[in-house]
Amino acid sequence: MDEFDRALINRLQHGLPLVRQPWEALAEELGSMSETLRARVQALLDDGVLTRFGPMFDIERLGGAFTLAALAVPEARFDEVAAQLAAMPEVAHNYRREHPWNMWFVLGCATPQGIAETVARIEARTGLAVLNLPKEETYHVGLHFPV
Amino acid sequence: MSDCISPSDQALAQRLVALTEAGLPLVEDPWAWLAGELGLEVDETLALLQRLQAAGAIRRIAAVPNHYRLGYRHNGMTVWDVDDAEIERLGALIGAQPFVSHCYRRPRREGWSYNLFAMVHGRDAAAIEAYRNQIRALLGKACHGDEMLVSSRILKKTGLRIGALQRSA
Question: Which residue of chain B has the CA closest to A20?
């Protein structure tokens, strides 16, 4: 990764301009050529430095219901419960975190009722109480990693 | 930012999600490619993207780096018990810090007193600890307790997929 790649990654995290010729506009801004930029982005994707290039949706604005939830899983059952959650399509992310509430996951469903049903199903299948923490207010969303 | 997305734009947005699940093709004219797929004119497609971005349904059309590859190997979910009367002001302040990627208010529960969540990312454990101390200083006396939950293992990571949501409906 060279200085040009760094500048490109930093710039592209802010997004492609929504103008008629976006790559031309970006090339002008970075003092490069549209084709060169796109080839570099492809190389960074192929190399795994970038995981994706495309529209980032706020999926909640397109319908659906979401929540952050946690379980306090006994160590002896941790892998078994992780596998149970992994098999459920409503579970998007699941992380182990070092805390008595040691399993943290995001649920996504088409409706709020779907969330309630999924929480109830997880409690029935695991025998564990779900800590259900739907967001009440968003103050900030925006991953930006300067390189 | 407007909260208003028309039903026809909602339907187009759902098609956009499906079309770009793997990303936007790196072609000279991406809007023309999308227009062809959606059966719209190029100008209509660009206007649609502009409306969806103004409404907040598209945050941006951007590159997502692999933060591990960029050296950001540590993340902590910091949680804070903040006075209800102060949380709107302080939530906005914490969310504006450059090292915070996500910041939300969530409900308190029995046995869970934390109502402010801020995710921090850093290149080493000391960096995220320093960020936590900066947040603590900003919250001051309005905060009555906090913890940082460090992730030690990814158990599942799939994006939120509208297809999966519809199947689960």
Answer: B46
Distance between CA atoms of residues A97 and B76, nearest Å? 9
What pLDDT, on the 0 to 100 scale, is given for residue B3? 58
Do both B82 and B119 map to the same domain? yes
Domains within chain A, CATH numbers bracketed: 3-47 (1.10.10), 59-133 (3.30.70.3460)
Query: Are B66 and A49 in contact (CB < 8 Å)?
Result: yes
- Tell me if B61 and A141 make a contact (CB, 8 A cut-off): no
CATH number of domain containing B95 = 3.30.70.920
Same domain for B30 and B93? no
Predicted TM-score (pTM) above 0.90: no
Q: What torsion do the CA atoms of A103, A106, A112, A116 make, to the nearest 10 degrees? A: -20
Q: What is the mean pLDDT of residues A47-60?
A: 88
- Domain holding B144, by residue range, is 74-150
| Mutate which: A57, A81, A138, A144, vs B, most B CBs within 10 A | A57
Chain A residues in contact with B121 by the CB 8 A cut-off are 143, 145
Which residues from A are below 8 Å from B24, CB to CB?
53-55
Pairing label, strands A103-109, A50-57: unpaired
CB contact under 8 A, B24 and A144: no
Assess whether B94 and B146 both reside in one domain: yes
- Please tell me the distance in Å from A45's CA to the nearest CA on chain B: 9
In this complex, the residue of A16, A34, A114 whose CB is nearest that of residue B62 is A16
pLDDT at B167: 38
Q: Which residues contact B1 (CB under 8 A, 6 or more apart)?
A: B54, B55, B56
Work out how many domains chain B is built from and give that number.
2
Q: Rounded to 5 degrees, what are φ and ψ at A62?
A: -100, 20
pLDDT digits (tens, 9 = 90+) for A75-124: 999 999 999 999 999 998 899 999 999 999 999 887 889 999 999 999 99
